[in-house]
Amino acid sequence: MSLRHDPVNHYTVLGVDRTASPEEIKAAFRARAKALHPDTNQRSDSSVEFHRIREAYAVLGSPDQRRRYDFFTPAVAPAPPPRATAAPPQPVRPPGRRRMLVSLAVPVVLLALLGYWLFPESDEPLLAPSPARADVRAGLADFEREMQVTMQQSAPTFSVTAPPATEVEVAGRDGHVFVISGQADRRLKPILERLSLEYEQLQEQKAAMNTRRQNLEQEHRSMDASDPTARVALNIKVDAFNREAAALLRAIEWHTREVNEYFDEVDRAGVRVR
Residues 248, 206: contact at Cβ < 8 Å? Predict the structure, then answer.
């Protein structure tokens, strides 16, 4: 099977060398995708260029697809310049109007034929073997998901954003469900995330304090009552434990108060549905 040489190949579309690493290919693709995405670029040809870089990344972003592409599209070295040969001097004549028009029309026709040859009217990837078309489509689907994640992570840089939800269901006291507005959810959601994280940290501290209490009780049972030094050392440990336990108890009480205030706010901001 013979393949034509494509001077505008996937590497030139992404602006990288054929020896570029996967990280360089991915970085080049992300930069060009952000610049040419139809949601941010209003040029008439941005969608066409975006489709081309998406096809290029679907092939070059997969190691197997890239090896297959490099195998079927080897780099072509530029042809050596022709050797200069002596030519007899020709009389210099000013170009006529017809000759000038012909000299301009020939390159235009050649460029049009070259464009039709390089970019046929087909949605299939250029120079992709038929058995790999399903893999290319799967790679494009993965790219679409990755592009959505990228757009969400860099949402402030895009002018088009999804409208926020108008109503959200949240959990209230005793497992009841409340419907609150999207604005209230954006205000209460960070509070709930902070309280959830604090609850996990308090549970870890509580478990650690229980372990220390058991160790102190074991040390007290095995201590020699006639040894005054051991009694003093144990009393120091017990005093430190009591201070930390009191501080943990105050933190738990404060956390419980904040949790109750959060649920009170949910009750005020929402409507109970079940």
Answer: yes
107-to-41, 79, 112, 115, 269 alpha-carbon distances in Å:
31, 20, 9, 12, 71
Dig out the tokens for 187 from the structure: 């205000």
Nearest residue to 270 via CA among 191, 173, 200? 173
- The per-residue pLDDT string of the chain (274 residues; one tens digit each, 9 = 90 and over) reads 333 445 568 898 888 988 999 999 999 998 888 887 767 777 766 778 888 888 889 999 898 898 888 887 766 544 444 454 445 555 555 555 666 665 666 666 666 666 655 555 544 444 444 455 556 566 667 767 776 776 666 555 544 455 566 888 888 888 889 898 888 889 898 999 999 999 999 999 999 999 999 999 998 888 877 788 888 888 899 999 999 999 999 999 999 999 999 989 888 888 877 7
Sequence-ordered list of residues with C-beta below 8 angstroms from that of 150, at least 6 positions apart, any chain:
30, 33, 34
Residue closest to 202 by CA, chosen among 239, 240, 250, 242: 250
First to last CA, the chain: 67
